[in-house]
Prior knowledge:
Elements lengths: L3 E5 L12 E4 L2 H16 L8 H9 L2 E3 L2
Amino acid sequence: MTNAFSYACRDCEGMEACPASVVAETRDEVWKLMELHARVAHDEEPADWDQETRDYLGTLIKPVSV
């Protein structure tokens, strides 16, 4: 039974060396943590991500059981 969602930065193309990952109860919470991580660790501005990038990143959020 799925009761959480996860994202591992290393699953993102070009970020294979990044050890960061998050697990949260909802997809929305994972998105917020992903955006914070992108700002802090990669000096990216998530507001600048186009829809294609957001769609790709969304495929990297996986349901998990914890």
